[in-house]
Design brief:
Layout (H helix, E strand, L loop, with lengths): L3 H4 L1 H8 L11 H17 L19 H10 L3 E6 L2 E6 L9 E3 L2 E3 L14
Antiparallel strand pairs: 1-2, 3-4
């Protein structure tokens, strides 16, 4: 359900082309991945594999829309791009607690799990 809006962009774009621009996929996931890959290319001329995670601040609270989005994909299949093809993962599974850093400081106790985001399309 959270990704469905991406599939309707072409329909909406045609209807709105004369009066407004529609921008899809301009969010933190593609921005972070693109930025990291660009840094890598500048350094050695090659791309690299990028793993991405988004974790809320300790002081942030999830509203009802975030909770509803998460519950909509818990335990459901999610298509993920890995290597050179699509694989299937399961929403809110494969949890891990990798070492995350912010401004050089290790953030302890952060748990991550697979999330369904429209950027995967």
């Amino acid at each position: 359900m959270p990704r469905d809006f991406r599939r309707w962009i072409a329909v909406l774009d045609q209807q709105a082309r004369d009066s407004a621009a529609i921008i899809a996929g301009a969010s933190s996931v593609p921005a972070a991945v693109g930025s990291r890959r660009a840094q890598s290319r500048r350094r050695d001329g090659r791309g690299q594999t990028v793993d991405i995670a988004i974790s809320a601040s300790n002081s942030a609270s999830a509203g009802s829309s975030v909770s509803a989005a998460i519950l909509s994909y818990v335990g459901k299949p999610i298509q993920l791009w890995q290597g050179d093809g699509w694989i299937r993962g399961w929403g809110w599974q494969e949890s891990s607690s990798p070492e995350l850093r912010r401004a050089g400081v290790v953030l302890h106790g952060r748990w991550l799990a697979l999330a369904d985001v429209p950027d995967l399309d």
